[in-house]
Amino acid sequence: MGQYVQSYLTDKKKIQDLYGSGNLSLYEELYTALKAELDDLDGDFEDELEEHNISTKDILLDIIKGQTKYPVLAFMYGYVYEKLCQHYGEYFSPPNDEYSTPYYYDIAKEQEYKAFIPIPFSDDFPVIYSIAVEDLDKEIIPFIHNARRRSQMNKETCDLEQEDFQYAFEYAKAEHKDLVFFIY
After folding, report:
1. How far apart are CA 28 and CA 105, in angstroms?
2. Can you list the pairs that 20-29 forms with residues at least 24 positions away whose Cβ atoms lie under 8 Å?
């Protein structure tokens, strides 16, 4: 699988409100709404999940209960978190489709992985970087200005990449939504 970056506008508050709420009717509602996506994840990671005798439904329940019963499957919490970001928001692509995964990966590693809820993070994928709407102006700086550090990247690619990250931040500000990047 090649590396790529996905971006979402989402509602941080809704995600934070569900975390640890213990609201089983919300759990059932979310499971019903996300069933197809969660079933796809179950199929994609069948071996890992079967080894621990769980499914993504169990990970979703952990999030609702505010617990981490399966830290060895940290990556699954990231994938379910992505589905929650999408459910409470929208996926979008930048105009040039030029998010550079090595560049983004460098930034995310420098800044540490970030999520709106305390989920475990994998040492591998997905790499998650969540930015609250009130932090967009501050958080844009490494995404826009650090690209020039990469001397191996040609100027045209660098300019397109900066344009795409600028678009993502401006779009989030215009929509007054929180921004989340995932790298795979």
Report:
1. 35
2. 20/64, 20/65, 20/66, 21/64, 21/66, 22/64, 22/65, 22/66, 23/64, 24/64, 26/64, 27/60, 27/61, 27/64
Q: Two tokens at 96?
A: 């040039």
Q: Which amino acid is at 170?
A: E
Q: What is the DSSP string of 64-119?
A: HHT--S-GGGHHHHHHHHHHHHHHTSEEE--SS----HHHHHHHHHHH--B-SS--
pLDDT digits (tens, 9 = 90+) for 42-83: 999 999 999 999 999 999 999 999 999 999 999 999 999 999
User: What is the phi/psi pair of residue 68, to 5°?
Assistant: -135, 90
pTM recorded for the entire structure: 0.91
Cα(75)–Cα(45) distance, integer angstroms: 10
